[in-house]
Amino acid sequence: MSTTNAPAEERLHPAAPLADLAAALRGPLITAADADYEAARAVYNAMIDRRPLAMARCANAADVVSCVRFANEHGLELAVRGGGHNAAGLGVWDGALVVDLSTMRSTTVDPVARTVRVDGGCTWGDVDSATVPFGMATPSGFMASTGVGGLALGGGVGYLSRRYGLTVDSLLSADVVTADGTLLTADKQNHPDLFWALRGGGGNFGVVVSFRFACHDIGENGTVVAGPVLYDLADAPAVMRWYRELLPALPEELSGWIGLITISPAPPFPEELWGRKSCVIVWCYTGPADKADAVTAPVREFGNPLVVGLAPMPFSALQSAFDPLYPAGLQWYWKADMFTEISDAAIDIHAKYGEQLPTGHSTMHLYPIDGAAARVDGAATAFPYRDGGWAGVIVGVDPDPAQAPAITAWARSYWDELHPTSADGVYVNFLGQEGDDRVRTAYGDNYARLTRVKAVYDPRNVFHINQNIPPAG
Fold it and tell me: What pLDDT, on a 0 to 100 scale, did the predictor assign at position 6?
């Protein structure tokens, strides 16, 4: 399906107005004539300002089927929105029909089978609230407000990756509406090629209306030992050198990402540290409580930390800790790479740009992909990066649109200098609109197979408002 420059209204078949689609849906169809249109088209990243033709707030899988079939019949672009966190804002598109899953948010836990069924519009906060009371969780990311669909379909790097693998490694099945409007279930026995592609291939293969995930132990009653350890920015080079050697040797029950931040001017941070630039490691220990002190001692005691914030807490509290600091509606600019090492040259660049953090929300994070995540063969799922290392992301962030040029320039300059130290790859969930070559880079040796699966399930590239993988041939 190709994009046209004609106004969206002119592309509608005159015999099939939007009223026909609205009548077929159980959920509402929102257009520019509706009072809630402006709010409905907004996404997490406020740099994105797109005006869809209509947004279908789907109530169930049948609504999704109706939307896909209607778009096919009338030559409309299709965008798919779950949690709305997509870095490039690809959940909305000018002139498109948006399949909005945000009201499809039910979860069902099976504590005996140790699984959770999750609607396609859920956030990870929805999932954690269902599983953590049972002392279980599915590997996810680092924020409760992130949508399940986007994170899971791109791979899913998070606090539990070292112990239990990526989100895709716990995916058991997915109910998918494909490009011709067919609802099918993909798992290891049914449509195994599609199931392989869904585990990292993004939204290229259909609209996932529900997922079934395996759950894993995360401590008694869902309690973990977690929190930040903060260091003076001047100590960042020494901390990074220590961290790169220590992390692979730690028990897999303990994981931590490292970053450069400005300390938030709010509790629980001491007031004398507010606004101070810092190196941070946020740790999460999910093993037995009686071993927590011994396992975390090395990470509590290194160097001269400004704050040691490790404490017992529900896993859901850790997952939601950053949501108040990064509410929807901020300006975001993303740049990312994969790293097999944190080299001395990279550390020098991190120190330079840490000093230049342009706003209080701007930051750099390195998320580890090792342990259980690295023991999966790189060809076993569409997500290819299984050799250990880190997924790195640089984000310029601020509430003020006037700061957009400054945060963008900082992130680009930082990435330009850091990129030569990286591996040849990028985590697709951190990718902006950077062109076809970067999408190929995100999939490495798996890209050719993905194009072949695409040719089977979406030969006309109906689902192309994404980090697009075109069909082979």
Answer: 43
